[in-house]
Design goal:
InterPro entries: Aldolase_TIM (IPR013785). By secondary structure, the protein is of the alpha/beta class. Helix content is about 40%, strand content about 10%. It has a single domain, classed as Alpha-Beta Barrel (TIM Barrel), CATH 3.20.20.70. The chain contains twelve helices and ten strands. Helix 8 packs parallel to helix 10. The C terminus is likely disordered.
């Protein structure tokens, strides 16, 4: 992990209310397949960006340097972090998705999400850590995301927790750090809507209670289910359990800006957005405005207007009018929605 990320983590544990970690999730190819790079804007004849175009967007985000973490698939990071050395000389920490549970198998025609999530990992941690810079003599990537989806299903959840135990023990043995993503159930009606925030919080705390201090996740990545739920979890063990929020679907610009502001206000100290950044008209400018919000320079409404003004100066057409982009839509709970 780069010095800036380590400093922010230390500041958060000290209770610094201004320290905030911003991450970009560029790991969609672990879930969606060919549509993963997203659709071109302005529209073109082709339906999807190519993977080389997707990689170029990653290079631009990293070079801009506003984010603290760039999360990608092992295949992309083996090229960008290891071969191209894109992260060298920057304060952006590279990270990989360390598992791909069945509830994110979301490609066209796939029906895996109709069953309770099952643990699975395409990548191998030893293989990731073997990507080592000869000059530095240390792994190019030693941080990753591990994901669990609880469904209130005894056998499925027991299998997921057992797999997590095996993962964290291997990670500890290999010197690999991780942050933990916990999704809401991918099956409907498994938990009453009013109980869902408490179900997720209690599963997180119960699962991590068996992990020695210092061996747990660097931080959490969870859906923003309610302000009270975020506050409860952030207050539970603030020195050892840092709360982060996930972004869900792209939505309007105000959706993203309001979500990060509300998350920070209620105790989240990390935001990891994927589609909200990828689907923006200008991802780099979009990320800059996310940072201005967390730095306290702009309110969400001000940021929407400022972002549209920036698009105008760049000569990039907006997908929506300012009025439409100031609307708020529902916050999604899972990766697939």
């Amino acid at each position: 992990m780069k010095a800036r990320l380590l400093e922010k983590l230390a500041a958060i544990r000290r209770g610094d209310p201004h320290a905030f970690i911003l991450a970009d999730a560029k790991d969609a190819d672990m879930a969606w397949g060919i549509p993963a790079p997203g659709t071109p804007w302005p529209p073109q004849e082709k339906a999807w960006h190519s993977m080389p175009e997707f990689r170029q967007s990653i290079r631009e985000i990293v070079a801009d340097g506003v984010i603290d973490i760039l999360l990608g698939s092992v295949s992309q990071m083996s090229l960008l972090a290891h071969r191209e050395r894109v992260f060298d000389g920057t304060e952006v920490t590279p990270a990989i998705r360390a598992n791909d549970t069945t509830d994110i198998w979301c490609g066209r025609g796939m029906r895996y999400r109709e069953s309770a999530s099952r643990p699975f990992a395409s990548c191998d941690l030893a293989e990731v850590l073997a990507m080592t810079s000869p000059a530095k003599g240390q792994p190019d990537i030693s941080l990753g995301l591990y994901s669990i989806t609880f469904n209130n299903d005894l056998e499925a959840d027991r299998e997921s927790i057992t797999a997590f135990k095996a993962f964290r023990l291997e990670a500890q043995r290999l010197g690999f750090r991780y942050f933990l993503e916990v999704f809401a159930p991918n099956l409907e009606s498994r938990v009453a809507p009013a109980d869902l925030p408490h179900f997720l919080n209690d599963q997180i705390c119960r699962t991590l209670a068996g992990v020695p201090i210092g061996h747990g996740p660097v931080f959490l990545k969870i859906p923003f289910l309610s302000p009270g739920a975020i506050e409860d979890l952030a207050a539970y063990d603030p020195e050892n359990l840092i709360v982060g929020i996930l972004g869900g679907s792209s939505g309007t610009t105000h959706d993203a800006f309001k979500l990060i502001a509300e998350g920070q206000r209620h105790g989240a100290r990390v935001a990891l957005f994927g589609r909200k950044i990828k689907d923006a008209e200008h991802p780099v400018e979009f990320v800059r405005h996310l940072r201005r919000i967390t730095d306290g320079d702009l309110s969400p409404v001000e940021a929407v207007k400022s972002y549209h003004a920036a698009l105008g100066k760049l000569g990039i057409p907006a997908k929506r009018s300012v009025q439409d982009d100031l609307k708020l839509t529902a916050v999604e709970l899972s990766y697939a929605q």
